[in-house]
């Protein structure tokens, strides 16, 4: 039986609205149409921004306790409807139902942390009398919301990554306009539903669905939008930074994450952690393990165990609790990954397992002997492919780990604390996980990278810092 399409509406300034044109939302597993969403125009986006000007004033005037109440109520609504949210994530995206359920749990936590951080937007007193002649001055600074924030979000975490922008924005008293990924808009609309049910005042939040080529520039370039927060690819990030003009920019642009496994590591633990880190969400994960550098003395043991564990990974129906990995987001992306692997194989890489595609599915793939001039060795694969390399020692592993233009997160497995600290000091990344894969994150920690992995930091309190500005207040007192 064909799915009954409901025809979703977008959330424009607190109102659910339709458009004459629509976009089909497809399940990547079988390419079936599961629903439609409006295809907004540039005029729709302009209207939304004009409405957000009023929303920003409303948001800034909301007392902290009211912001906290609303954000917590949105989390409560999602918690009560968790299964609906998880099914939507698993249907429109690549995640299995187990992965989607974990994303819903994280989204709830993200919102609850946002509510708590609203009470911690502090300032400080300033000792103005540190300067001669200022003995009769006292003051402080406090943080105020910047106004309208434009958020452009990706497909791989279609609920929680949206919450990572919306939660802090509302907690800090801003208005926010979300442009979700065209292929996964339904989860973002469900987040808007939660905030509408929570009593968020009109015009504070909008979720505008449409093609980036038609509405993206309007959002990015409009002078009333004071900040752009973007999670996505490097090319798009660089284009946004060129067009945005004089406004705040926060970007997470992906990576080519390395993990180092030294000879004193627990090999079984390292294998289990890095297999999961490589193939979670079909490898479509900015923190995903892509390169593993293994000390030569344990290379054979690690490689054998890693391939065996990879071959146990169950690929199939996303909605089954038994499935470990589903398809990529569409067949085009699977073909792109296939080409990257084939290029490496043509240049001499060994395919130890995997390397097979069917429609949007690409099997978990392990490569060895990958030449360093291959695209897959230097760029983000964003797919279920991992590269294994033998190294002589820690110094060689660090040098090779740093030899890319990305630096989001890394991992190292060792029982030697001095070697761990050396890696901490020498690896060019925004985060390093000791005895864990690069694919580890909690929603409260600062999250972001160096080099071409992005600008600024997410993580709730750190996002709030980006979304607010300090205002200095100084009183000149009389001598009486």
Structure, described:
- 51% of the residues are buried.
- Helix content is 39%, strand content 23%.
- The chain is an alpha/beta fold and 480 residues long.
- It has helices at residues 42-61, 64-80, 82-92, 97-118, 160-171, 186-197, 212-221, 234-243, 267-279, 299-311, 331-346, 375-378, 394-402, 417-426, 460-466, and strands at residues 10-12, 15-17, 22-27, 32-38, 124-126, 137-145, 148-152, 175-179, 205-207, 225-231, 248-252, 257-261, 289-295, 350-353, 357-358, 361-362, 365-368, 385-391, 406-407, 409-413, 431-434, 450-451, 454-455, 468-476.
- The model has no long low-confidence stretch (mean pLDDT 96).
- The chain folds into two domains: 10-253 and 455-471, Aldehyde Dehydrogenase, Chain A, domain 1 (3-Layer(aba) Sandwich), CATH 3.40.605; 257-448, Aldehyde Dehydrogenase, Chain A, domain 2 (3-Layer(aba) Sandwich).
Low-confidence stretches: none
In the CATH hierarchy, the third-tier topology of the largest domain is known as Aldehyde Dehydrogenase, Chain A, domain 1
- Global mean pLDDT: 96
Structural class: alpha/beta
End-to-end span in angstroms? Answer: 85 Å
Q: Which architecture of the largest domain does the CATH hierarchy give at level 2?
A: 3-Layer(aba) Sandwich
Strand content: 15-25%
Helices, by number, come to: 15
| Main CATH class of the largest domain | Alpha Beta
- Mind describing the biggest β-sheet? 7 strands, mixed
Entry summary:
This protein is of the alpha/beta class.
